[in-house]
Structure formats: C-alpha cells, structure tokens
Request: fold
Amino acid sequence: MSVFVTTENQDILWRMLQQHSQFYNMEFSQKNILFRKTIEMIYFENEHVQLNYQQLQELNKKTIRVILDRFVQPINFVESSEDKSVREFREREEEYNNMVKKPDLPDAKKMFEEPLSDDVITNMDERLQQYQSQRTLDISNIEMQNQNLSQANEELIRRIERLEQIVAILEKRE
Reply:
C-alpha cells in the first residue's frame, strides 16, 4: 500500500485532477484539504493490501472518482483540531523517518565484481603467433638496450682509466 502514498503517485493523481476544470478552479487550500482527506481515507481503507501495478491503477481511478464526486456535491471540510494534530503528527513523523532512513547504497560486491567472459578462443594459433612476435620484439629491444649499456659502460671505464692516469701524473708532479 505504500506505493499509493508515494510522492510520484500523488503527483500523478494531482495532475490528473488538475485537468478537470472544476477542480482546477477551486481554491488551493480547498483542493489540498480535499485531496489529502481522500488520500488518507482510501489509504486507511486499504492499509494492509499489497498492490501490484494494475491494482494501483484501479485504486487511482477510484481516488479520482471519489474526489470528483465530493466536489461536485460540495462538502465543507472543517478540519477538527484532533484531525489537524494527527495530520501534522504524521507529516512530522514521515519527515523524521525520511531524515533517519539509511540511504540506499548499491551492492558493493556488484560494484567491484569483474565481469566474467567465458568466450571461446577460436583463433588460438593466431594469438600464439601474436604473443611470440611481441615477445621476440621485446627480447630484441632488451638486447639493444643491453648492447647500448655495455657500450656506455666500456666508454665510462675508458674515461675512468684516463682520469686515473691524469690523477697519477698530477700526483707525481707534486
């Protein structure tokens, strides 16, 4: 039954009623009271009923009929202090429940779960060949780097040897 009193459903009902000229031309406070009283009455009549989509539609039709019947045969709604207190209490209670309600968080497992793909590998030879060519390319790159490093090392060793010779010559002069 909670589906019936959702703001989305009440908005739909309100818009449908606004399309009726007599309801549209009513004073806002009267419309509001009529709407709330009718929703409240129908809600308490069907409080423990679990509604599916079709039943909700039927209940919405009934609600619109009841509201239209009530303002065609005007009934003055005078809200008693008890009714007003009950209504205000329910409004505050709903507001409090909305404030304290835990937010609806998505399931963490689904957020961090890797999608499973059980695709059958149809081109295994092609993939192996790609893997081997990539590996060969990587190995040749590593060999080139090693060759460049060994050449750089040999150059550094020659410079160090020259510097050692220069240092030895300078030490002999002193």
